[in-house]
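Morning run. Coffee first, then this:
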Amino acid sequence: MTFRQPSAPTALITHPACLAHEPPAGHPENASRLRAVLDALSGDDFRALKRTRAPRATLDMLARVHDRDFIQTLLASLPTSGLAMIDSDTGVSSGSREAVLRATGANVHAVDLVMSGEVQNAFCAVRPPGHHGGPARAMGFCLFNNICVGAAHARAVFGLERIGIIDFDVHHGNGTEAWIGTDKAYFYGSTHQASLFPGTGREAGGLHIHNHPLAAGSGSAAFRGAFKAILDELTQFSPDFIFISAGFDGHRDDHMAQLKLEDADYAWATEEVCKIAAKTCQGRVVSTLEGGYDLPSLVRSVRAHIQVLMAA
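And here it is:
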C-alpha cells in the first residue's frame, strides 16, 4: 500500500485522564492498552498527526444518547477512592469519572475539528471503550457510548442528515444498535464473532442495521466478504459522516476471541471506509478505540489503521 501526504492532517485526540480509569488487577481492559498505543504513535512516522487533548463532555451532550437519570446515577456511583464493579465485567475507580467524560468529549471534539475543515479525519485514543454502553445501561467494559455521543453531536449541531457507524470490533456493539433503534438517520454495520459476548447481532435488524456475524475460526477472506457487504449497503445509504468503532480484538493473536484476522485486514477495512467517505462525505471520518487486548497485535493494527487515515 502506498501512502500519500494528506491534504489536511489527521487528529489524534486523547487525554491523560483516560489512563487513570483502573479496573481490578488482571482485568484485560487496563491502562497498558492505551499506553502502548500512545507510545507507538509517538515516533517519526506519526509526527504529522495533529495532537490535541480531549475536553469533557457535558451532561447535555451525553443526554442526546443516554437517559438523564441513568447518567446521573452512573456518575454518582463512581467511587471517589478505591475500586468498584458496575457488573461482573465492568470495573471502575476514582479516575473513571474524568476518563469517561474525556472519552466521550473526545468524539465531540473530533467532530468539531473535522467539520471545521481543520483536519480530514480523527482517531480518538481513549478509554473506557463505549460500544456496549446503551441508553440506560453500562456493561462490557463500557460506561457511556463514546461513538454515539459523537454521532449525535454531528447531527444535532451540524444538521447532518445521515450518519454511518461501522464497527469491526470482535464483539457486537449492542449499545450502539440499541441507541439507533428505528432511527433511519443512522446506519450501523457490524462484523463480529457469532455467539460471543454480548450474544446480540445475530440478525440484520432492519434496512439501516447490518450485522454480519462470523463463525469462530474465520479469517481474512470471510471478514473481508462480510465487511464488503456492509460497505455496499453503506454506499447506498450515502452518509454525511462516518464513524468507526475500531476494535482490534479480532486479531489472530488476541485471546479474547477466535477470529483469525491480520494487521493487513484492519488497514484494508480502513482504506475501504475512507474510499466511501471520499465519495459521499468529503472524507469525514472519526475513529475511536474500542477493544484489542493483545498489546503487540493491538499496536501493529492501530499503526496500520492510522497510517491509512493519514493518507486518506
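Residues 10-311 form a domain with the Arginase; Chain A fold (CATH 3.40.800.20). Good start to the day.
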